[in-house]
Amino acid sequence: MKRALVGMICLTLSGGTLAASIVDSKHNLGNIGGNTANRNYTDATQEVCVFCHTPHGGSATHNGEAVAPLWNKAVTTSTFQTYDSLGTSSLKGSVANVGSVSIACLSCHDGSQAMDVMINQPDSGGYTAAGASLGGTWTANGAVDAATGKMLTANPIPGVGTDLRNDHPIGIQYAGGLISGTDHTNASNYRNPDFVAAAEVTINGNQIWYVPVPASNATTGLANSVSGSQISPVAGTRNKTDMALYTRSVATIDSGRAQPYVECASCHDPHQANTATFLRIDNTGSAVCLACHKK
Question: In whole angstroms, what is the distance from residue 7 CA to residue 243 CA?
């Protein structure tokens, strides 16, 4: 049965134009939608979401973690060099093995496999547990090999490769973790005091941590499907323009206590096209950096 193409396209009533969505972004790898001069795409399918997600039969985990929902790719088994190996004295938190949502991002961005490798391919009868590529032809307009569909890691963006020492740390405790106690919303508890206090909510019994971004800084231009105006953050809940923190429990770090970690998707929202590099907010004036770092 043909899957429905799910694109979060909002028609604004005020201007009658389409709000930017994943269909307009570089994460649309299908042969549909605009912006073809600025993105890589294959002629094998007109689906968009299928390159990352599937309704049925998603990926198993990598090192016990793969938190991206219904992930439609074989997660990478690469070995990574991480930022902590530089030995910088400013790094006060412990770094976990690459995992959580970051391992999903790196399924493409480490250059280990083609961007169209998926477990459950479009239409029926295309399930391959180990993942397989589509049979189409790539049009390359970025750092990708047109013959193989793999990210080219010679250019560190977006093909970051497996050496992550020159990238923002991922899998790292937010603010260096806690000196004592369990309250991550109290900045005076942090090992590194130069961080904004995190917020915490409980959703379906799960602890969710994030760094709130004030409405004045949420300048991504996210469109409201009714009014066409920017969506204002809602107090007391994590918004798409907040800096997301991801809960991890690592046996070798602070006795395996569940706590917030910084991952790739802390700063990047892969489902929008309002910022060129998927940043959750526009980085004018270093707004992304200063959302977490007190400098």
Answer: 24
